[in-house]
Amino acid sequence: MNSPNHMPADRSLTAPTSGCPMALSRGRVGLDVADEISELRDGGRLGRITTAFGQEATLITRYDEVRAQMADSVVFNVAGVPSPPALVDGGFDTESVRRRRTVGNLIMLDPPEHTRLRRMVAAWFTTRRVERLRPRVVEIIDAALDEMERSGPPVDLVAMFAKTVPITVICELIGVPEELRERYRRRAERAVSASAVSTPLDELRRLREAGWVSRELIEYHRENPSDDIIGMLLREHGTDSYDDGITDDELVGLANALLIAGHETTTQMLSMGTLALLRHPDQLALLRDDPSIVAGAVEELLRYVGVLHGGFVRVATRDTRLGGHRIHAGELVVPALTAANRDPRLLTDGDRLDITRPPTSHVAFGHGVHFCIGAPLARMELREAFPALLRRFPGLRLAVPDSELEFTQGTTVYSLRGLPVTW
């Protein structure tokens, strides 16, 4: 078996790979896919990348191959993915640390553990259940817009709207009391900013902080029974029975995973989706003047924007093929989601934003068993937020030159540092 960080020399009958490993975020400018990654996809080549956690992996860029990889959780699983170099090099790659990183975290689990935990919370994220939340989400959106209006232009849309709405929604759904929400928000932001240059102490600090905050939340709900997700899990599954129970450690991991997935990604879709509309005033006008097209507009923005640099790292459990590419056992792979969503084999004009486009498949929410459990909630928030924003501020525009906008690089979530707007 090859070591996970070794690219086999024999790649007969496959397209060649790129040269030295690159950071997945390298070369990305604004909302576009990095030229180097687009060239890999269009040239039928695999890439070599360094992930946000310092691991070297093979990059998959074409839509069909990305879907095939994410659909097969047996051949491509998470159990064999090595710990981040920051932990290994620092001598902190212990069983207790590995468990703290993975237990209860749906992203870091394979079936059947993943299936068991996901089933416990899946009912909270069905389209029907999410629809019952719509009136409250509308209230949260309106309150954020009221505050923007009171503040007066210019305002930072990221801070005053894009962050405020998702964190409030997910905290109410999970059951995070007001006094803990700021700590949870900071925790989510730090979790997605982990990078290849993180030190072992950085990684341990993130893990410990996550445990402290979530354990405090669990104790709060034991003393204050409730009807939110944490309250339900404690009431219906709070036993040590493996088949139908959930441990405190699993609750900690699950709460953190739901928080991060339900907050930071939606925040950046609101931020960068708004920027995409501002950069395409004809598309903005279409949505502002006819909010009935919002469902299709949101799907197109999800496809076009690309909040995640890539999907999550997986390891090949045996020799296999993706398309014409040979993947060897032990090889780490990462799907390039944004590149896949703009694949010319999927759309001939994938680099163009068209919110009136007929329904088009995309992998913005992933695919397979790890398809984003919160996708119905995210879609509903976005479908309410964009029309409400444009209805309240029909003259919305950038308050600074576009060239002054800053994006984060080298993190799991691609994000805007700020979006100054006026109206």
TrEMBL record:
Q: Which InterPro entries does the entry link to?
A: Cyt_P450, Cyt_P450_B, Cyt_P450_CS, Cyt_P450_sf
Record Pfam families: p450
Which GO molecular function annotations are given, in alphabetical order?
heme binding; iron ion binding; monooxygenase activity; oxidoreductase activity, acting on paired donors, with incorporation or reduction of molecular oxygen
Q: Which GO terms describe its biological process?
A: antibiotic biosynthetic process
Q: Where is this region: Disordered?
A: 1-21
Sorted alphabetically, which keywords does the UniProt record give? Heme, Iron, Metal-binding, Monooxygenase, Oxidoreductase
Q: Which PROSITE patterns match?
A: CYTOCHROME_P450
Q: Which family is it part of?
A: Belongs to the cytochrome P450 family.
UniProt protein name: Cytochrome P450
Species of origin reads Salinispora arenicola (strain CNS-205)
